[in-house]
Amino acid sequence: MKISLDINKNLEANASLYYDKAKKAKKKIDNAKAALERTSQLLEELKSKKDAMVKVEEKTVSTQKKEWYEKFRWFYTSTGFFVIGGRDATTNEIVIKKHTDKDDIVMHTDMAGSPFFVLKTEGKTPDKKTLEEVGDATCSFSRAWKLGLSVQQVFYVNPDQVTKTANPGEYLPKGAFMIRGKTPYVDNKINCAIGMTKDNKIMAGPLEAIKKHCKNFLILKQGDSKSSDIAKKIKAKIGGELDDIIRAMPSGGIDIEN
Description:
With 258 residues, the chain is an alpha+beta fold. 41% of the residues lie in helices and 20% in strands.
């Protein structure tokens, strides 16, 4: 390291000059160390906050984990029975083949393009009110909604009456089944509401069922609005994810009842 001396100053003056420079340099170093320490502390605080946010996000994702039945139409009746229904030809097949037990009750309409709805009885006998709620759901999620009809012919059968064996010379497309034996009919009507359950799941079904199980809900009606537009309004009022709301709504023009 080279040191330059001012020949116009004596040795003590030159030494004093370098002493002052050394003090200033030390002060800068101390300030830099303090700034570095503050920056390190701030980074540590930010890292802690980030870790906390990640944990909250992970907890939220875990809490909102999709259940197996959410890929179908589903709801709980006001009397506590679980009901599951097909959304299309593929899920109709799955509901009947994989999620229907011998004591369950299967509902369908006389009109093509209807979902199959399965009332999970778990060995209990459902009352008239329960059957009518499932009938309302079968009607509301059928083509009746899109066609502007207010009622539909809805029948119910035992699972062993539903078969994929077609009559001779006939063919059953995907999602379609042949019904054998007697088909009692149940009173029904267009009746649909959508709400947020206590478990923060979007559930759609008959008003009586939604009122029983949802903390916030809206009544839906046939209309001219697009599902996506109505879904945004529903989200603003009851919360939930747009995709979940749209998936739960009936197919066709729709509006919210005032």
